[in-house]
Amino acid sequence: MADTINLFVNGVEVEVEAGKNLIDAIGAVGIEIPHLCYHPALGADGNCRMCLVGIEDGRPPLVPACKTPAQAGMKVLLDAAHIKKIQRDVMELELINHPTDCPICDQAGECKLQDYYMTYGRPESRMTVPQVQKSKKLDFGCGVVHDQERCVTCGRCVRFCREITKTGELGIINRTDAARVNIFPGRPLNNRYALNVVDLCPVGAMTSRDFRFKQRVWFLKKAPGICHGCAKGCNITIEHNREKYQDDLIYRFRPRLNLQVNGYFMCDAGRLSYRQENEGRLLEARLNSQIRPLEDVLAAYNQEIERAEKIAILLSPNCSLEQMVAVKALATKLQASLSGFSAGYIQQGDGDGFLIEDDKSANRAGLTLLGIDCTQEHFEKAVQETQLLINFNNDLSRSYAEHELKKLLKDTKVIFATSHDDSLATMADIAIPVAASSEYAGSLINCNNILQTFTGAVSKNHKPADIGELAAKLGSPLQNRAEQFAELRIYLSVLKDFEADTVPAEGLNLNDSEAANVTA
Amino acid sequence: MEVKILSAKFDIKDANKIAVAKPLGAYATLDKLFAMKPEEVIEEVKKSGLRGRGGAGFPAGVKWGFLPKNTGKPIYLTVNSDESEPATFKDRYILVRDPHMLIEGIIICSYAIGCHDTYIYIRGEYTTQVKVLQAAIDEAYAEGYLGDSVAGHDFKLDVTVHRGAGAYICGEETALLESIEGKKGQPRSKPPFPAVAGLYGCPTIINNVQSIASLPFIIEKGADAYKVYGTQKSPGTHLFGISGHVEKPGMYELPLGLPILEVIDKVAGGVWKGRKLKGIIPGGSSTPVLLPDEAKDVTLDYESMAAHKTMFGSGGIVVLDETVDIVQLVKNLIDFYHHESCGQCTPCREGLGWMLKIIKKILRREGSMDDVNLLRELCDNIEMKTVCVLSAACTMPVRSYLDKFRHEFEAYVQNASSVQAKQE
Question: pTM for this one?
Fold first, then answer.
């Protein structure tokens, strides 16, 4: 626990964390100080003036809370009449030139200006002169669309590009009420995190071309998730909605704060990876390219199991730990050789040391932890020795060209449990639809040996089975997630005090010996 | 009434050239200076009571005392020569007519505070002034008064002239520092103050041209000689720029503490064309206006101005005769400050533009009493809610005009309602 100090807010003594500014210190105990320009990841700028608070007996008596460290004994005034008046006045000035775009603005419903107007604003407009007009829908590149009229020039986006990505594409040009955020002519946003400026923007000035006009945010259901785009395991919020008569679709991923994994941000590729959850899905089971009921397909599977002398099973490095132990137990029962070969998921040199990793899979550490052989020799030898390959959602097209794959599998029957209807599903003798990562609950170990859990967010109309459930149906002795999680404790003593649903939100750091198992 | 301390060489031809200035005493104080300890120099300046001539009037020696000791960082002196306040035209005289007095002052200040790199931030529009100043600096280098060994003493000092790009706000000391650092000229939040973390994060003293130029006299003649002029709390002399509706507008050096009306009458020749006095802007456009009645007891010093709810400011006195349309004047005033707002803080960025549109509406005779009241209220809502005082520099005078000449604003809106009634 960090050091704490006591100070007074509106005359009431509160205990807050030391070493923070007033917004964060007092905010942590549930007292809001309104602010637009301050963001904990970007530091204090002090330009919006919404966070001005009174300090009783202070010199000066009026300070920006974002720039003022919390000090013991400080007497902070928030509900004094003169402070409420300042908040109302600053809100009025923020709004005089702000267009009433709310009915067509994507930010409506999650807009700081709207929220603050309701809490701190003046009910009636006194603006009787023409507003300042600026440019709308400017293409800033990287899928970011900017509306200068909605902008409150808080400069968060500018500071993000300067301080976080260090690319500096954005700046505020001009002075006075002609000040506006812009790019340099012909030099649009060009970094792999650009869409974070959309989240950072407290108002609707920065919008995502991908999300614009797709959904009103109050229709979106939000569930915590983990991005499966790479080994970093950025924490995300999965925002999805089932429109009437439609399927449950994801509309966006947004980063979710986890200071020990991704902080406040995520990369654009991960953010847009939600599309894969929606698109190109395998909806029905297939037997020899014919759509068949799942029961028939499972019967065919059992025949194949009976017939095959030797079986090879392939796991995806994106599978959850629970799925992996379930499939591993199945492999043991079937005396099948188990592989996690997935070299194609690794894009050497693509990582940037920030949030993007070379390894584009979410749980390779899990394969290593369970001692599953991931070498190409082992996998190819297993395939050659057998007549039946059961592939659990491993996208082999990442590791092999199509002709190589056809050659490798020409004498092998393939049962493909897949979330997506891709070329591999077409080639497979049996294709069984399974859930994508947003549809089941599970655990992952990221590249920094942090174990994180996530819950299922989306429920699709075709109700695909999670690989863990499917493995149970196919004969794995581990029948449900609780059994799978119990099995995990054999490998991870760190889990001994936890159930699947009690793992802390920020994740569990593996201890050194377990981490050594993972990285071995 | 006029005195010749700072302006001693102003009327001498080519006094900007070292060959002329040196026989007249330029750089004569340096031997005395280097015989003193730096602390003794600071003490002497403190004793002289010299107050910052940029407008705020903060005692110069006290400011120097704020420098932290032994930080391991270089100390910078920055001379604020961004003279942009409307009605202010004093520093330009020093820059053009006696630049060597400024350079000598820079040497004195730098020695006192332990600075070896001085920046002169000069207003971008001052093209002539830049040329003359740079030529003088070049001469000072050539004669050994600047460089590795100042006047043969073991003291290194470099002076760099940095030209602004035409922004009033860069006269605000921290915006000035940002501008020198190559950034957009926007004031910084304080604390930290520049004396602690200024230019490039190092301890920095920022003084106005006239403050620095006052130093050679103080060192040469001593603090007591300086205190002969002016009042107890506002000692010394000041360059006053008197403009507006007077018979003899111009720049006059006067001791502080003289009655303002007497100065206008006797020094500047009185209100022109035999007209009546309507008001006086005492120290640049951002100071609240004085009515003739109020001005009766006002003397030209910091205390008297403060007592009359205005400010001494930059010494730029503007005399308004009875023909002045105050509403038009206020429009010009807001127009200027709106144009010069850096756009950083919400109240100033949005508020000054709103005020400008309201005053224009009133001028178009489309305004109402609500607009006048709103304008007055906005002065309170905007003022002192921002990082710097630019917004206050606009709202303080505007409030004074609204309060003291309210009838003129009312006449515009009453006229408006009668015009509208006729149309109906």
Answer: 0.94
